Predict the 3D structure of the following.
Amino acid sequence: MEGYQRTVDYVRDHIQHFSLDNCALGSQGYNRVLLQLFGFMGHGKSSLINSCKYVLDDGEYYIHANALASHTSVTFNRTAYPLTDTITIVDNRGCSTFNAYETGEIYAQLGNFIPLNQRVEWTNNYEDMIYKLEDSEMDPNFTDITIPVFVYSVKKGLAEGEKKDTKEFIDNCRKMTGFYPIVVLTHKTSGDFIQAEKEFLLMGVEKVIKIENYTKEDHGRTQGRHKEILHFLYSVLEDVNFQMKYKKIPKRERVERKKFLLKFLHQREVNQKLEQMRRNAKIQQLPTL
C-alpha cells in the first residue's frame, strides 16, 4: 500500500506541476495544454471531468460538469475547467452522429474557432459558419496546444455504420492538431471494452485508455480508479512532451487549422448542393397523377 501511495503521489505531483517551459524547446509560444473532450451525447465526458478534478484535487467529490446517465446531453456550452495552472479540460458540445452537419461544428470547436465558455449553436448554413470563423479573428487563440480526447461508452458498442465516420473524424483530428485523439472508454464494466479497444486501434488510434468514472452515486475512492484517471492525464503529457521536442509555430498552426476547416466546409456545401440537385431530379421524374 505504501508503494502504491508513493506512486500515486508522484504521478499526481508530476501532473500538477507540469510546465510547458520545461519541454525540450521550451514553451515555443504556448501557454496552456487544452484537453478537448469530444464524443456522442451521454457517453461520459462530463463525468470524466468530475473524476479528473476529484483525483487531482484529492478532496471532496464535487459536480463541476453536469452529467446524465442516459444517452442525452446537457452540454450545450463549450465549457472549460482548469485542472492545473497549465492544463485545462474542455467539455465540448456532444454530437448525435458524425455527419457533415455536426462535424463542421465539432472541428470549429477543436480548432478553437469558437470561444470557450460560450453556447455552441449547431448550424448547417455555410455563410453562418464562415461568419463564425471571421468573428474568431477578432481575438484569435493560438497559444493553446490542443489534445483531442474522444470519449466513448462501451455500453453502446460501435455500430457498423458509425465506424467509417468515426475513423474519418479521428484522422481529421490528427490533421488539425498534430495529435491522434486519445480514446477514453468509459463504463468499462458495462460492455465489451476489449472489442471496443480493438476497433479503435484498427482505426489508427495509438492510445486507448479504459476507465470507470467516479459519479455522484459512486465516488468511494479505489486504487484502480485513481490509477486509471492519473494514467489518462499522464499519457496526455507524454504526448505533449513528445511533440514539443520539435519546432512549432503556434500562429502558423492556427492558420493551417483554419485552412482545413474552410476546405471541409466548402466541400460540405458542394456535397449538399449536389444532393439537393439529385433529389430535385428524382422529384421531376415522378409520374403525375
Notes: Residues 69-75 have pLDDT under 50 and may be disordered. DSSP finds eight helices and seven strands in the chain.
